[in-house]
Design goal:
Elements (H helix, E strand, L loop, with lengths): L5 H14 L6 H14 L3 E5 L2 H11 L7 E5 L4 H9 L3 E5 L21 E4 L11 H11 L2 E2 L10 E2 L2 E2 L7 E4 L13 E5 L2 H10 L21 H32 L21 E4 L3 H10 L29 H9 E4 L7 H13 L1
Parallel strand pairs: 2-3, 2-4, 4-5
Antiparallel strand pairs: 1-9, 6-7, 8-9, 10-11
Helix pairs in contact: 1-7, 2-7, 3-4, 3-6, 7-10
The structure holds pyridoxal-5'-phosphate.
């Protein structure tokens, strides 16, 4: 996906270079309009990266010290870090063992009078069960902040991820489904007031230069990245279709192998396969076997947030979130990128079958 659009990217870069305008200019405005349209939200606000987008989303809602925010127990650490940055406490809720996404049936038990928000993460590219999550949020008067870093273009019941929550964050880290050439991210929302707050917070707390309304950050998306992302966004649906085709080949080829668990998609959800994650008890041995045949795999993620040293102060221990721990101990992400051929999938199957 990198080579075919190189020329187009280089032309875009040259125009950017010649514009002599490198921060918060027309390219950022254009990308924000493009991405809002793609995501079918009223607003998109370009942010420096995905973690900062989640951080600003929480700040925009006024979530802070003493508050609790519900996050899945199996996620990339960034989801929890954003909660910690504003002084709130991440409260972990276990995922469903089939979809790997937060289990809506377990959320209510984690709600206290300090709970302010639920942060669903559409993990590996599959949309969470947003209708059930939204019903809980409405019942308890909680905000929803989607972590849409892995799932641009996924839907639940025909509504895009990143369009369900009050204010949502996404990431354009190079490895994501829509990747910049460096760090970048965005907020999406249908709420004008929250979009406005996010724009002020990302830019030193200022709307008018040198007039600072609040204690803000420098968390702006780069003009250069925005220009490149507008080009790449045009190809995203096509890349997603390729990912889904590759996933189908994997499903077909690996279906007969008893020792591995294949990914499952929930009713009404779509999956954009940021990652194709299988599970097996002999994960480490299988990874080594594949590696010996020059098939690179990764583990997303080897240590769940509650067992990270950074979160030792929360006092969690092994066994507290057994489903997240089981996933961490058995998951393996197989190669997945647009442009992969069926032959590659068959070869990976053959090497796995030898094992
Ligand atoms: C990548 C990722 C982030 C953070 O995005 P960055 O742009 O790397 O800061 C947050 N949450 C999840 C689930 C991610 O995968």
């Amino acid at each position: 996906m990198h080579v075919p659009i190189k020329q187009e990217i280089m032309q875009t870069f040259e125009a950017f270079y010649d514009s002599n305008w490198y921060v918060l200019g027309d390219k950022v405005k254009q990308f924000e309009a493009d991405y809002a349209q793609f995501n079918q939200t009223e607003y998109a606000v370009g942010i420096s990266n995905g973690l900062d987008a989640l951080h600003i989303a929480l700040m925009s809602l006024g979530i802070g010290k003493g508050d609790e925010v519900i996050v899945p127990s199996n996620t990339y650490i960034a989801t929890a870090l954003a909660v910690s940055y504003v002084g709130a406490t991440p409260i972990f809720v276990e995922p469903n063992i089939e979809t790997y996404n937060i289990d809506p049936n377990l959320i209510e038990a984690a709600i206290t009078n300090k709970t302010k928000a639920i942060m669903p993460v559409h993990l590996y590219g599959q949309a969470c069960e947003m209708e059930a999550i939204k019903a809980i949020a409405v019942k308890y008067n909680l905000y929803i902040i989607e972590d849409n870093a892995q799932s641009q273009g996924a839907q639940f019941n025909n509504i895009y991820t990143g369009a369900w929550g009050d204010i949502n964050g996404t990431s354009f880290y190079p490895g994501k489904n829509l990747g910049a050439l460096g760090d970048a991210g965005a907020i999406t929302t249908n709420n004008k007031d929250l979009a406005q707050k996010a724009m002020v917070l990302r830019n030193y707390g200022s709307q008018k230069k040198y007039y600072n309304e609040v204690i803000g950050h420098n968390m702006r998306i780069d003009e250069c990245q925005a220009a490149i992302l507008s080009v790449k966004l045009k190809y995203l649906n096509n890349w997603t279709e390729q990912r889904q085709q590759i996933a189908n080949w994997y499903h077909e080829e690996l279906a007969g192998i008893e020792q591995i668990v294949l990914p499952k998609t929930a009713l009404k959800a779509t999956h954009v396969y940021h990652l194709y994650v299988i599970r097996t008890k002999k994960r480490d041995e299988l990874q080594k076997h594949l590696n010996d045949s020059h098939i690179g795999t990764l583990i997303h993620y080897p240590i769940p947030p509650h067992l990270q040293q950074a979160y030792a102060h929360l006092g969690h221990k092994t066994g507290d979130f057994p489903i997240a721990e089981e996933i961490a101990n058995t998951c393996l992400s197989l190669p997945m990128w647009p442009g992969m051929t069926k032959e590659m999938v068959v070869e990976i199957k053959d090497v796995m079958k030898q094992f």
